């Protein structure tokens, strides 16, 4: 089930796992498994990928990174098919992602004996890339009556939905703002008027989807398999220049 109405859907290069995620969600619809269980599953996959990097099992690393991306989509799909959307699941998903991203890059730094400073810059770059993608995507979803569990501006804790506790939402929202607040503010500052955009064309959204976490993890897996592990950190630092390119395109289109 797409997060957007059919007429507004675009080719999302980071969402390659969606078809399998839909199958997984449908198979779990009438079971006791919840979206939170699936989120825990992708956390386990991320940790297994890190273990495989440490032991130079790069094909296995790629497998677990792709599986992690599939399950990352499946938790939201399961919430939709069971009609149990929640802010608890939304924030737990995001907090889990950023912690795994940091651990993954630190692991790559460790096995390549690279620069810790560059690793941290790559982490910042990856998070800013992902923030821009999510920013535009959430704007699009809110404009076209798509899934609205994510909000364009995360300024205050949302009111808990049916079936979840407000205290859980508040705690996870606090963690979310701690981890993502600075990245959100930077992207909002760079493109304050994005939420007023009349047009976010499909081709632009497809280009920006290369900033999505699924695509980022796929690239990391491929680079490890191909023997380019020492280039992963520099690549994500350099690719961050496209943040300004995509913002410039968005402004030009809506001038």
UniProtKB/TrEMBL annotation:
<dbReference type="InterPro" id="IPR043130">
    <property type="entry name" value="CDP-OH_PTrfase_TM_dom"/>
</dbReference>
<keyword id="KW-0808">Transferase</keyword>
<feature type="transmembrane region" description="Helical">
    <location>
        <begin position="231"/>
        <end position="249"/>
    </location>
</feature>
<feature type="transmembrane region" description="Helical">
    <location>
        <begin position="203"/>
        <end position="225"/>
    </location>
</feature>
<feature type="transmembrane region" description="Helical">
    <location>
        <begin position="116"/>
        <end position="136"/>
    </location>
</feature>
<comment type="similarity">
    <text>Belongs to the CDP-alcohol phosphatidyltransferase class-I family.</text>
</comment>
<keyword id="KW-0472">Membrane</keyword>
<dbReference type="Pfam" id="PF01066">
    <property type="entry name" value="CDP-OH_P_transf"/>
</dbReference>
<protein>
    <submittedName>
        <fullName>CDP-alcohol phosphatidyltransferase family protein</fullName>
    </submittedName>
</protein>
<dbReference type="InterPro" id="IPR048254">
    <property type="entry name" value="CDP_ALCOHOL_P_TRANSF_CS"/>
</dbReference>
<keyword id="KW-1133">Transmembrane helix</keyword>
<feature type="transmembrane region" description="Helical">
    <location>
        <begin position="36"/>
        <end position="54"/>
    </location>
</feature>
<dbReference type="InterPro" id="IPR000462">
    <property type="entry name" value="CDP-OH_P_trans"/>
</dbReference>
<keyword id="KW-0812">Transmembrane</keyword>
<feature type="transmembrane region" description="Helical">
    <location>
        <begin position="91"/>
        <end position="110"/>
    </location>
</feature>
């Amino acid at each position: 089930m797409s997060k957007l109405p059919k007429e507004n859907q675009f080719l999302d290069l980071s969402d390659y796992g969606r078809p399998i995620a839909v199958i997984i969600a449908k198979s779990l619809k009438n079971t006791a498994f919840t979206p939170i269980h699936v989120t825990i599953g992708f956390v386990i996959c991320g940790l297994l990928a890190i273990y495989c990097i440490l032991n130079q099992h790069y094909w296995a690393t790629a497998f677990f990174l792709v599986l992690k991306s599939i399950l990352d989509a499946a938790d939201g799909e399961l919430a939709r098919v069971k009609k149990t959307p929640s802010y608890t699941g939304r924030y737990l998903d995001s907090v889990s992602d950023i912690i795994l991203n940091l651990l993954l890059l630190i692991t790559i730094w460790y096995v390549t004996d690279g620069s810790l400073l560059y690793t941290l810059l790559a982490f910042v770059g990856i998070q800013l890339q992902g923030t821009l993608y999510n920013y535009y995507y959430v704007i699009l979803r809110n404009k076209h009556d798509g899934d609205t569990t994510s909000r364009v501006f995360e300024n205050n804790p949302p009111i808990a939905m049916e079936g979840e506790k407000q205290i859980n939402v508040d705690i996870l929202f606090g963690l979310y703002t701690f981890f993502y607040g600075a990245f959100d503010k930077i992207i909002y500052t760079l493109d304050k008027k994005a939420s007023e955009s009349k047009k976010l064309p499909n081709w632009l959204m497809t280009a920006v989807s290369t900033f999505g976490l699924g695509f980022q993890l796929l690239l990391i897996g491929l680079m490890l398999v191909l023997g380019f592990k020492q280039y992963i950190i520099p690549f994500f630092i350099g690719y961050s220049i496209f943040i300004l390119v995509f913002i410039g395109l968005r402004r030009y289109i809506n001038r």
